[in-house]
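Researcher: First entry.
Model:
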Amino acid sequence: LGMILAFLAKKEMRILMVGLDAAGKTTILYKLKLGEIVTIFPTIAFNVGTVEYKNISFAMWDVGGQDKIRPLWRHYFQNTQGLIFLVDSNDREREELMRMLAEDELRDAALLVFANKQDLPNAMNAAEITDKNWYIQATCATSGDGLYEGLDWLSNQLRNQK
């Protein structure tokens, strides 16, 4: 009975969602939380929302991506179980992801990369963006395409950690 109750108990996962400015982090947070698109302004600090999915409560921290805010990202690393790094697939110039992968505090965090803005004609596919435990999911924040497939991967990572 104890194993059944443990299986049925809701799990919690602290997720840090980062990426460069205008990649779509806040749009994804509200699409997952509310199921709709809301008017978004650049995130100055952070947004937090809880997303319930498949018996897991994801506490999602969406941290602003402007260049002056990026040095503050490290203050959110502690106790992060999953990292969603959002890549604007239409932006071929910026490479902040590689810098984050070198951070010691994130060594054990599962990494999900959302290759967002797949609806744009110049978007790189997941293979173009790629010894870390990570997964790249092509997404479109405005339609929701790919978002839950990404959460499925994170859910499986959480199950495998326990």
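Researcher: Second entry.
Model:
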Amino acid sequence: MYHQIGMWDQKWVIGNWKMNGRLQNNNALMHRFRIMPTAERVLIGLAAPTVYLLQLHNAMQIVLNNRILTCAQDVSRFPNNGAYTGEVSAEMLADIGTDIVLIGHSERSLYFGEKNEIQRRKMENVLNVGLIPLLCVGESLEEREAGKEHEVIAHQLSVLHGLNTKNIAVAYEPVWAIGTGKVATVEQIADMHAFIYKEILSLCGSDVKIRVLYGGSVKADNAADCEDVGC
């Protein structure tokens, strides 16, 4: 497993493929990274579907010798191995060179009913095998309009309490901005990022290293705005 030096001091940019990809198309895309300029201040990760993670890892780390991290979109809540048909354990993800694991994405909650208890178990499994969990949090449009965004995010962040780690990565992804074309304002993002930092320090102590990302209809023409809010 590869980790860049100073990764907790870098900006993080992670692309989530969701349920997309084909072997041939993946290869064509990944070979385009050969011409990508080096950016030492930026950590780049790609979250591919599980069936393509080994392809991604081999292409980036072995063939292209590129410092792009391999990210999984999900992991089993069950530790180790066992009779859990269709599940992929944290140990398996580590075995194929995964670096980061997304946990708690709103689509997992929406379509699969995953809540805090399951997310907590997944985070513990990921940490136990030496991988980095990236916890996704975010409020719905109804919750924001009701002024409950801080309350909702605080509840989602509560899964961090008591975790055996001093490195915390959280992606703030307002549900109302995912795949809708809507983008939170710089002021809204800055407010939520400041709140998330404060909550993490309260839950995990003042000596933790924290990375907070923003996700929600981010494109090349609006990504630069996040630079001003510490994404």
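Model: Note on the second entry: Residues 138-231 form a domain with the TIM Barrel fold (CATH 3.20.20.70).
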